[in-house]
Design goal:
42% of the residues lie in helices and 23% in strands. It is built from two helices and five strands; from the N terminus they run ββαβββα.
Length: 107
């Protein structure tokens, strides 16, 4: 399992276990979606193998998915639902950034 796939957008963190077929499926789906869309980057924590995992990412239920630092899902997730969440987060970030730019120009 690779530890990170790079992109410049939203960080998705995935906690998996080595003997978890559902984890393997979710990992491959997220890698595919990340590569196909370029909309997020993935950091994968293998709870059985990796030594330096942040305490907040040590889930007893796997797979576990955090998006932009917030727990999104425990267990398997539908890829469409996952992408809807990515879209909402990025749309909200875009709105906030546009608002900040307007405020900067008005000062």
């Amino acid at each position: 399992m690779k530890n990170e796939i790079s992109s410049e957008n939203t960080l998705v963190e995935l906690a998996v276990r080595s003997d978890c077929p559902e984890c393997d499926l979710i990992e491959s789906q997220l890698k595919y979606l990340g590569d196909a869309t370029g909309r997020f980057r993935i950091r994968i924590y293998d709870l059985d193998r990796d030594k330096n995992i942040p305490d907040a990412r040590r889930s007893s239920i796997t797979p576990a998915i955090w998006i932009a630092g917030k727990l999104f899902y425990l267990g398997a997730v539908d890829p469409n639902r996952f992408m809807e969440k990515i879209n909402r987060i990025q749309m909200n970030n875009s709105i906030v950034n546009n608002h900040k730019r307007r405020l900067k120009w008005s000062n």
